[in-house]
User: Fold ABC transporter permease subunit from Streptomyces filamentosus.
Amino acid sequence: MTEPTTTPGRRTDAPRAARGIPAPGTGTPGEGTPDAGTPGGFAGAVACEWIKLWSVRSPYLCLLAGLAITGVFTFYYASIARINDHPVEPVGNAAASSAVLAQFAVVILATVAVTSEYATGSVRASLLWVPRRHRVQAAKALVVAVVSFAAGVVYAVVGTAVAWGAFDGRASFDAGTTLRQALSVGLYLALIAALAVGTAFATRHPAGALAILVTLLWGLPSVLLGVGGPELAAVNDYLPHGAGDHFMRSGVEAPYAPVAAMLIVVAWAAVAHLAGLYVLRRRDA
Assistant:
């Protein structure tokens, strides 16, 4: 029997099945198909972003730096409260207050997770593998937010333990309040990480993204509270950290309920996410 041949440089019109070539995505797993055993859709995008995040050293360094900052800050906070004989307050307030600095650990982690791909050009491969732009951004934001939430809870637990010893009796402990504050710190850092991802997609450059985030999360609140006055303090209440501080801390008077404070931070993260998505769709890679 004579084998069918094709003329070099000439395309054959025979169906793929007739030539023994499976259609894309229809091969049997384990038979050498490119997508054998690999999840697709949003789950696949999330798996890809998870692998990319932990394939470099920067996330580990950022998270360790955040843990160190939390330990130092909570010890300092509790020691000052003890020395100055401040009124007794929930011990979890020390860990909640440390978020003003610890948040920059997840800000840098989230920013580098985005901008490093633009710096190396690997974003082209990411958009080729996952053509739907919103899926790429959502997957990256979800992965970074989950990691930041877990880190925030750990930071709060460690910070509370450190502060309890440093307070030396100048703090109260309630299991329910402490647990709520630990989860609140984790939620706040997760939302800040999502905000940072959106900002990084909008700027595409680490210096630009960090300049905006440092100004928004630390510089502007410092100016508003430093200058003083109820009007400027009221403006700070609607900035991300001002609102976040209200739902992380306990026993402190706030102009709105903790749920409203959380929704303010959610709104900031959503605006940043939409801005980043607009730029990603308009300018592509």
User: Anything to note?
Assistant: The mean pLDDT is 87. The radius of gyration is 25 Å. DSSP finds ten helices and two strands in the chain.
